[in-house]
């Protein structure tokens, strides 16, 4: 039987039956008939360049405390990915940004908090000053030659993002 994060129905409190299908697993409450799915979390982040340097933040919290990542976080209920991306940059770096375009949409499964979808935008700074805040302890701009080593990057998607940015810098 598939592992489920809880054994009761969040709607009525009844015990759940777990159904494993060919492509997914979900829970069904035999008491109230509610279906429950474990949907992926949605994260939003921002790729910010300034004078040929990439902005990264160092995580001050687990998971992956002490590793580098692009400014990002989870999308809150009722919030658009665009608003979440701008909010996370402001919370983590003190910078205000304008989103330029969608850069990538990536799936991830290497986060201890669960699987998810990561939406990454390109943006440029419109105000503020870089300062580490919220759940980061350092903010840095890195040229392609100064980037942290691969093992110091937080997630698989961080490594993919940084590699794509580095390649684009070399081609331009």
The name of the CATH topology of the largest domain is Nucleoside Triphosphate Pyrophosphohydrolase
User: Whole-Å distance between the termini?
Assistant: 52 Å
Number of spatially distinct domains: 2
Q: Work out the helicity level.
A: 10-25%
Folded structure, characterized:
- The structure is a single chain.
- The chain is α+β, with helices and mostly antiparallel strands and 172 residues long.
- The protein has helices at 81-93, 156-171, and strands at 17-20, 25-28, 35-37, 41-50, 53-59, 68-69, 72-74, 95-108, 116-128, 136-142.
- A hairpin with a 2-residue loop joins strand 4 and strand 5.
- The longest helix is centred in the last third of the chain and has 16 residues, at 156-171.
């Amino acid at each position: 039987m598939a592992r489920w994060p809880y054994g009761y129905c969040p709607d009525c409190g009844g015990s759940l039956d777990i159904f494993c299908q060919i492509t997914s697993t979900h829970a069904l409450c035999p008491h109230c008939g509610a279906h429950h799915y474990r949907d992926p979390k949605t994260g939003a982040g921002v790729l910010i360049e300034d004078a040929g340097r990439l902005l990264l933040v160092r995580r001050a919290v687990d998971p992956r405390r002490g590793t580098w990542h692009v400014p990002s976080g989870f999308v809150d209920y009722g919030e658009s990915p665009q608003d979440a991306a701008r909010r996370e940059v402001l919370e983590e770096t003190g910078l205000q940004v304008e989103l330029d375009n969608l850069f990538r949409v990536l799936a991830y499964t290497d986060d201890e908090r669960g699987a998810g979808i990561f939406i990454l935008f390109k943006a440029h700074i419109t105000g503020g000053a870089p300062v580490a805040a919220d759940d980061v302890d350092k903010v840095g701009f890195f040229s392609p030659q100064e980037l942290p080593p691969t093992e110091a990057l937080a997630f698989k998607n961080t490594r993919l993002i940084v590699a794509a940015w580095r390649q684009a810098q070399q081609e331009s």
